[in-house]
Amino acid sequence: MSTTADSYYVPHGTKWPIIGSIGLATSAVGFANYLHGSSLLVTAIGLAIIIFMMWGWFGQVVNESMSGLYNEQVDRSFRWGMGWFIFSEVMFFGAFFGALFYARELSIPWLAGASNNVATHDLLWPNFQAAWPLIEMPLTEKFDVAKQAMGAWGLPAINTVILLTSGVTVTYAHHALKKNNRGGLILGLFLTVALGFLFVGMQAWEYSHAYNDMNLKLTSGIYGSTFYMLTGFHGFHVTMGAIMLTVILIRAIKGHFTPDNHFAFEAVAWYWHFVDVVWLGLFIFVYWL
Amino acid sequence: MSTATTTHDTHDDHGPASGLMRWVTTTNHKDIGTLYLWFSFIMLLIGGSFAMVIRAELFQPGLQLVDPQFFNQMTTMHGLIMVFGAIMPAFVGLANWLIPMMIGAPDMALPRMNNWSFWILPFAFTMLLSSFFLEGGAPAFGWTFYAPLSTTFAPDSTDFFIFGVHMMGISSVMGAINVIATIFNMRAPGMTLMKMPLFVWTWLITAYLLIAVMPVLAGAVTMMLTDRHFGTSFFDAAGGGDPVMFQHIFWFFGHPEVYIMILPAFGIISAIIPTFARKPLFGYSSMVYATASIAILSFMVWAHHMFTTGMPVAGELYFMYATIMIAIPTGVKIFNWVSTMWRGSMTFETPMLWALGFVVMFTIGGFSGLMLGIAPVDTQYHDTYFVVAHFHYVLVTGALYSIIAAFYYWVPKWTGHMYDEKLGKIHFWWSTIAVNVLFFPQHFIGLAGMPRRIPDYSLQFADWNMISSIGGFAFGLGQVFFLYIVIKTIKGGKKASDQVWEGATGLEFEALPSPAPYHSFNEAPAVK
Questions:
Q1: Domain at A221, CATH number
Q2: Nearest CB to B234; choose among A29, A116, A225
Q3: In angstroms, what separates the C-alpha of A190 from chain B's closest C-alpha?
Q4: Which of helix, strand or coil describes residue B481?
Q5: What is the pTM of this model?
Q6: Which residues, including other chains, have CB under 8 Å from residue B491's CB and lie 6 or more apart?
Q7: A27: containing domain
Q8: What is the pLDDT, as a whole number, of residue A46?
Q9: Which of B435, B259, B260, B268 is closest to B364 using CA atoms?
């Protein structure tokens, strides 16, 4: 299938980026207006344009790849691109982990008078006591006070097992692909996708429990803020990863991949391992310690 | 392993498509470089016009022309437009034009994504600028958008600013990924890493800084957004967060950001000085290591922007010493440039003048930076005009001067036309005199205690402010003159030779004609 091209493929012109920009701007403007009272219609249109762009752009790249336009050097460019894209995602999560550590190690102790902040504590909220997870924030009237913190050893521990298992199944699929075992590839991918969506479902269940039964909300002070923003962005990334894996599964069923030419599979597998590792950080620092 | 680097055969003989859609759909690194450069020039003029409003209001004490709220919008938008709209895209434009030509590549590694990196920007900045016309006006909290000014007390238009920043971040990260993939994967055979021109090296390191910190900025504005609308308390002490945390996250982005705006400049100067001194660059490898050291240190010094906002003394001491350490690799660079010129047979064409202006005036900005890095004295300098003078010396006479130098140095290669040497020299001397009249007095009024970001001031600052404003108007006029020179050079001029400059080296001068063809290297060039 893939006759290796002898030259670096430089596409001639493309309409997808400008469509993507229009989609991005439409959804951004729409969402900004939604925050000030408009409906979400414009945002939805923008997102539809973005999905259309991704469908078309990725579809074109898949077709070009299948018709053998890409040589090994193009493949390496994709690898560099995907690798450093994942690194940029790591740094995005780093900002939120940074906020978590800052709150836990600095701002909460300082508000309670640690270091040289005795006067801060006495003048602002003299009854405030440092704790983590922080249930009683300094000004409880302004926020939703949770009944308790989210434990680690119930549902989150099960989710950890689910996600780690999915890392194993995707690796199994990769090994099967390299041995040209299509049955194993499809089975491994199917299990990974199923585990991915199971994780997202469990996470949604946990959120519903937290909101309805525990009164733990985004508005529950810095604990609720970091909890939901970190697990929320992670859940969003798992959802994206599971959708990407689904695409790869469909492509695998269609027979798009060969034992030595399957960058798309590997890129998504890298991404999947990345969300896996982020989850371990979350499990340790958000749920457990 | 294939090392052939020709464009695919179905595209071989294509020149540019015709009409406007050429620019919208292009995947050519030269077209995209041109788009970036024109975009940044337009932003320079817009941001510059905001600066003119600022200097006009400050021409005399008292409130004359604009009300204080609008003045604050001007300082905020001037900073944002110049940093994200003028300086950064100009360097990306230069990277697009030059890196493939310098390393012998047919194009950038990911040409479609290259197009998207650029075409996000006009939308992002339209959103940002449209905030002037929204209720409550544009953001007025300073380009550093500290919480709670940007959360609790900000106008509605702040959400346009937030999403604009998200989009700029996407653009920057994609651009940086492209630079890294191009440099690591597209070099001609024989172009080893330590043979790469320094502009390529400095951009490689800049790209890493971009990938590492633009997502952190995206995280910061996302926290702002949720604090504003979804009840989180990242920057709200009442919920256990901290407004000072915003400053830490912002400056973790912000300090590498200032090196993003200066490392490519180092690369440009390292190309120009050897050409006109007719000597190879002194200490090439030490330049590479110095650049890398500066980049690594840039992640460890952020809180020197926050000496007066509350930090344990041990923290102040650490950040002070770490900051002062940056002077070592920067000093290596300055001395290497001076040593390159030592006993060279120098001539002073326009690019060399701008490069020399850079070396002298960037060093002035560097020294005032050392002063600001000393925690006890920063207590006096913080948020005064001394800081304004400092960062305009490094950003205007540093970054902007290098961009202008790069224009004069490479434009004959881009267009095939020499610029008008006489006009270029007038541009340099006019700008250099004006910029010093503009910014040097700000050191004095800053040391005397005039705070930044205010529309009115105490009477004792009146004289130097008036002089500074006169310099400002002159400098602004000089850049309109630059626009004229740019257009004149594109339209015509003396034909440039292939080597352009007698002492020029590098693939773009030695292996390509002037103007460089639409597709540079269909066959990988031989690298000695």
A1: 1.20.120.80
A2: A225
A3: 31
A4: helix
A5: 0.95
A6: none
A7: 10-63
A8: 98
A9: B435
